[in-house]
Amino acid sequence: MTSLSGVNMLTRVKCVCGAESDISGVTPRLNGIEVYCKVCGAVTTHFDE
Ligand SMILES: [Zn+2]
C-alpha cells in the first residue's frame, strides 16, 4: 500500500530559478542539505527546521 497520510516532511527544495528539486532520501545534515539544481546548476542549501 502506498499512502501519504502522516507524511509531513518537506521533500522538495525550491531553487532561486523556481525549479524544485526532490530531496527525499537525502540524509539531513546539521549544516543543511546541499541540493544541486539540474535546471540552472545552482546549489541551494536547505535547512531542515
Ligand atoms: Zn535552479
Q: How would you sum up the major sheet? A: 2 strands, antiparallel
Number of helices: 0
Tell me the radius of gyration: 12 Å
The total beta strand count reads 4
Order of strands, main sheet, comes to 1-2
Low-confidence spans: none
Order of helices and strands: EEEE
**Ions, cofactors, ligands: which are bound?**
zinc ion
Helix residue percentage: under 10%
Task: Please give a quick description of this structure.
This protein has a domain at 13-46.
Structure notes:
There is one protein chain. The strands form two sheets. A two-stranded antiparallel ribbon has the order 1-2. The chain has a two-stranded antiparallel ribbon with strand order 3-4. It contains no helices and four strands. The protein is globular. Helix content is 0%, strand content 29%. Strand 1 (12-14) and strand 2 form a beta hairpin. The protein has a domain at 13-46. The chain binds zinc ion (ZN). Zinc ion (ZN) is lined by residues 15, 17, 19, 37, 39-40, 42. Residues 15, 17, 19, 37, 39-40, 42 line the site of zinc ion (ZN).
Task: Note the topology.
Blueprint: E1 12-14, E2 20-22, E3 33-36, E4 43-46
Antiparallel strand pairs: 1-2, 3-4
Zinc ion is lined by residues 15, 17, 19, 37, 39-40, 42.
Labels describing this entry:
single chain; 49 residues; mainly beta; two-stranded antiparallel sheet; two-stranded antiparallel ribbon; binds zinc ion
